[in-house]
Amino acid sequence: MLSNLLNNKYMKRLRISLNPSLVTPIIIFQPGKVGSMSVQRSLEEAYKHPDLDMPIIIHHVHALNQLDEREGYVRKTRKNPEESIQLIQEWRILRKEIESNPFKKWNVVNLVRDPVAIKVSALFQLLDQHIPDWEKRLNTNELAMADLEELFFGKQEFGFHGLDRWYDNQIKALWGIDIFASPFPWGRGYQIFKKENINLIIIRLEDLNRVAEQAFDEFLGLKNFKVVNANIGKEKPYAELYNEFKKHPLPVDYIDQGYGSRFANHFYTRDEIAAFRKHWARQ
Q1: For 28-41, how does the pLDDT look when each residue is reduced to its tens digit (9 = 90+)?
Q2: Which domain holds residue 122?
């Protein structure tokens, strides 16, 4: 009987390896800088568990729609855009796969985070693309905080208009799921949508450690899911500069834009937004 069980498991693995379409892939899909690398690493570790005998296919993307417009913007506004252009090319391939297989099932993981924190993190993630020689300039005292502020407040991508429209332009446009049509369960910290071949979960980063085990059990049937930290800002070469930037209070009008957004008011309570405001205003 044991040998039959082992043979069945072997045949299942073999069948999956020969036919990848049997695996429901996971798309980690969000605007960026929301802790998504930690979720990817956590999923990879979870699927290594000996009780699981299925491979995992994970795609990590920030956009699947309006890719030509995105590439045009990147080429126009960044001094060193090659890394982002390469990613966009990879996203095009995934978009083509989605379009070519309209009935294929997809598990989509979306994370949200304090919108101002997203934009501040994005500034430093993209620093190489906007100021390719920033490290050299920093070491020779030629990079001032004013240079970073000019970049941050002067570029459209560090504002909130795109973040507000992201769910309509990406999730809704691709799969017809309007996440703003129903309230987000703030206390629960995550929300699951199911529509035809799409299984979508939205999780607030601030709640991830608290709810991850329950959320991924409900979403994917994963038991004992554990969060593994990855892509940690304090380990990046810009960590010291990043921390210095965060010590400076942000302008009130910028904070108002962030927390007056549809994004902020859908995913966070008034009290949570007030706490975010206080943090960034350094009050």
Answers
A1: 999 988 989 999 99
A2: 2-281
